[in-house]
Amino acid sequence: MELVLTESIGAIVRWLHVIAGIAWIGSSFYFIHLDLSLRPRPELPSGVKGEAWQVHGGGFYHMMKYLVAPAQLPDHLTWFKWEAYTTWLSGFALLVLVYYLGADLFLIDKSVLDLTATQAALIAFLSLVVSWLAYEALCRSPLGRHEVALAVVGYVFLVALTFAFTRVFSGRGAYTQIGALVGTIMVANVFVIIIPYQKKSVAALLVGKEPDPFWGQIGKQRSVHNNYLTLPVVFLMLSNHYPLFFATRYNWLIFAIVLLIGFLIRHFYNLRHAGLPNPWWTWAAAAIGMAAIAFLSWAGTRSAGAAVSSGAGRSLMTATTSVPTWRPSRSAEPRVIIDTSSWSPIRSRTSAMTPSIVSETTRPRSWLRALMSRPAATAAGRPRSWSRSCRSNSHLRPFRRPGSRPARASAWMRLTLRWSRSAA
After folding, report:
1. End-to-end alpha carbon distance in the chain
2. Is a pLDDT exceeding 50 seen at residue 324?
3. Is the pLDDT of residue 322 over 90?
């Protein structure tokens, strides 16, 4: 019951996180496109930067943007902020429920750094705060007035943090941590900079004063930062399902390339929306980057040794070894004990497991129960149940007893065995 409740809460929060993220990313992309597509015209009202005509859903829309603010505040004003706030709040809830409370499984890799669950969760949380303060200091420094220089320093800053996280947490934990950090930076730009300065502009208009143009400029700067960080953070949200990215030796370098690819793709569309010549070279560079990611994933997995197969292997070990390998598994599967001493490639790493495989070990258990109930041919040709065979043998070779035909394992189990044997 506890597992059902935990998984249900996690699914609801994750669903909310995805929906809110779609709304936030969609509005962000739309307003960046709108801002870049504005065209000036002499007949426009005073203080208007430009206008754009759009058609959608069978209707026409006439959009205008003021450089600072209109002379008179309208009666109704729509604020775009709760999409960002809801995305971060739901994401942080997932971070606590899954990674901080389950730090011993999802954040910690003993082969990287021997930490307790409390230490890992504390380091992860403090790094979010300290890293955001460092980003804020960079933007407020004289470097913040130079866009290209700030972008280069910011890129190196994020890559260096990713490298540091991979030396503290597991591969999945490092990717989750850098994703949480980028998301925190983005929502803090909205909460700390964009919305407060917009409120200052509204307050100035209400008392008949002219708003400071700097308030709009700094808000636009942070909005552009969020625009360029959107694609990399979406990749990090999905990366938990792809061990070939996070469970390799070069996971930090893979993220560095993904970060650059995200920048290039957004740069292409930003220039396109502004009516400038299309920089088609960005797509060629992105293709080269994807090829480099594929190569690094392949090379890193070979050097790490069976990282991909460790997920299913660890799940099977949790269900079948005599001693529970994970805290929530309070007892081993009765009557079935598999000697896993020869499974060193699978035992070596557990960072490639997906959360769904870890939290629910019912699939390998049910598979073994079905396997035990099936008759298996003995050397003498007489049928014998797997359960009786397990009692008489202190050692059970993975899925095959000497003299018997191979068990009809599922496709993913056969693939796991092939990977583990080739790595051995």
Report:
1. 39
2. no
3. no
